[in-house]
């Protein structure tokens, strides 16, 4: 079967064609028009600007996705779209477009939760996911979702059977990266900027500074699976203010990689510790990672080492499927299609607050 998927929940206009053949997933196209450069000028997303750009891009992006997949409307069996959560004005563009296309081409429509998309974004990398044997080997799963808006640990007992195990009580992990990048003057989006800066830390010579740059690992020893990143961001701000008084401009620039590295490690320590603790409690056979922050190489490595240590499988998405994209919506849609969980285009509205769990 071929699924045409649409995603427009935030600042990426995306369309994709996903093919599912005897339980194996293949992403035939994954087309994204990113608005990042435009929003970077403002240091964050302006919803009205995002919505206007979605309107301009959505139809050409869908056409491109079909073309890149070397297919056409006659061969599309289902349409999937992100129904929420996200910015309402952004979501609406994708949802209204999907509804219209579903009606015009007479193709069943599926709505997918954005978080479920991130959660299942690994699917095209794991062969025979559908076989009974594989299912026995991988379930229950513990999923770590780390994006700009969400940080959640989700127990996946089976597809479509999710339970919230823990989440951030304040800022999402990606949001913390973005805010810390702003404090350090590294621009938007902050995640890639922080991780690039952290890589410059190796072998750096800054006399007497290394010892001073220590940050907390909030809630790491607490018995639950909740997290908090707002205090960590504030700790970076105080540290930066203190160092700004103490050091000259040149030396201040020099310590940036140390701060970026320490911040990144603090976030990763918390995420990995909590995820592995949850995996142990729920006797998980595998861990899955998803969301924009899953592009972070140090996070992937740390989780890989920790999972290997306890003999648990780790599934991570292809780098192209870490940030917002429509392929992940097509992948997750498959399980709704299997259950004939279709939605009537005339009764469907975008839901900016839609919670998966
Ligand atoms: O999933 P996503 O594309 O959008 C939301 O649904 O929120 O996630 C975006 C977030 C941003 O906060 C961005 O800074 C972060 O993912 N991010 C990263 C990296 N690449 C993107 N964070 C850490 N390291 C990265 N390499
Ligand atoms: Zn996202």
Report on the architecture of this protein.
- The chain has 357 residues and is α/β, with parallel strands linked by helices.
- It has helices at residues 36-40, 47-68, 88-105, 114-119, 132-138, 173-183, 190-199, 230-246, 249-281, 297-309, 327-338; strands at 2-7, 12-21, 24-34, 78-84, 109-113, 141-146, 151-158, 161-167, 286-290, 313-315.
- The strands form two sheets. A five-stranded mixed beta sheet has the order 3-2-1-4-5, sandwiched between helices.
- α6 (173-183) packs antiparallel against α9 and α7 packs across α9 (249-281).
- The chain is globular.
- The mean pLDDT is 95.
- 5'-O-[(R)-(carboxyoxy)(hydroxy)phosphoryl]adenosine (KG4) binds at residues 10, 147-149, 174-175, 177-178, 189-192, 195, 291-293, 295-296, 323-324.
Topology readout:
Elements: E1 2-7, E2 12-21, E3 24-34, H1 36-40, H2 47-68, E4 78-84, H3 88-105, E5 109-113, H4 114-119, H5 132-138, E6 141-146, E7 151-158, E8 161-167, H6 173-183, H7 190-199, H8 230-246, H9 249-281, E9 286-290, H10 297-309, E10 313-315, H11 327-338
Parallel strand pairs: 1-4, 4-5, 6-9, 9-10
Antiparallel strand pairs: 1-2, 2-3, 6-7, 7-8
The protein binds 5'-O-[(R)-(carboxyoxy)(hydroxy)phosphoryl]adenosine and zinc ion.
Residues 114, 118, 147, 291-292, 324 line the site of zinc ion.
